[in-house]
Structures are given as structure tokens and as C-alpha cells.
Amino acid sequence: MKHEDELIDLLRTHPFLMRDLKLVHSLGLPNGCIAAGYVRNFVWDHFHGKSRFTPLNDIDVLYYDTADLREETEKRYEERLTKRQPEYNWSVKNQARMHQRNDEQPYRSVEDAMKRWPETATAVGVALDYAGKLKVIAPLGLEDLFSLQIKRSPFFEDADYYRSRVKSKNWLNLWPRLKLID
After folding, report:
1. What pLDDT score does 64 carry?
2. What is the pTM of this model?
């Protein structure tokens, strides 16, 4: 819980976090959250003392809905978000269908899908609960994120893809204090 409280306190200093979470929350997505680079980059920027945020390729929004597996539904959510916050490249994905793309067994939840992501430090999301409080989703924990460690998820089998992804993202140059654990 220590790192969860620390993450919530840190995220409260993020100038756009509450606005973005309220926007995502307004969609009423089942188990909806903002995840991946949005959280990871902010934490790593903070621990590297950066005064400017590292630019994001996209904002990953996750949800879990077995009743509607259509990609078109995700695109409609992206359009709604883009109308309200056009400066972001929104990427909305229903984790109930992402197992198909990854050629795996169906995921049981957002958390189940996230733990299969390549890196442990990326498998972190935040959401607003119904009382408007920040909620952290971290199925692989927060230790690696806060220890500035890049580790392959124990549920992600393709080690070569993991290594090429870390290299292509240029993380070790962007955040030189990171440690790659291979």
C-alpha cells in the first residue's frame, strides 16, 4: 500500500490528471481507466527531475465489456474523447477482445489483460471510483515502477519482442537512471 499511496499523492500533482480522468469517467466505461505510458512516464519524469513532461504517443484508455466486442465501439469512444480533448491521441481498447489480437486465451478483466503486457512498470492504470477518488490498478505491483526498473512481465513470453520494444522506445536514453533487468 505504501507505493499506492505514494503514487496517488504524486498523481495529484499532475496538472491534467483529474481533468483527463473525469473525461474518461464520463464515458461510463465498465472498469475504465487510463493506463500505461500516461502513468509510467509521469512517474519516471518525476524521479528524473524533469520540468517538462515526456511527450506521449497516445493516451491508453482501457475497459472491459464482454457484451460489446466491436472495434467500432472503441473508435466511437475515441471520437468522443477527441472532441473534448483534441490535443491527445486517444487509444481506447476493450480488454475483453484484446486476447484475439494477442492470440491468447480470453482475459477475465482489465487487470488480467494488463499483467500480460511486456513490462511490469507499464502495467499500471488509474481511474476514478464512483465517489470521485483516485484508484490505482497495478496487477504486477508498483515496485518496479518506483525502483526505476524495466522488467519483463512474468506473463509475457516473447523475450525478443520485449527487448526490441525497450530499445525502440529509447527509454534508457530518455530516463538514464532506469535499470534494465533482463
Report:
1. 98
2. 0.94
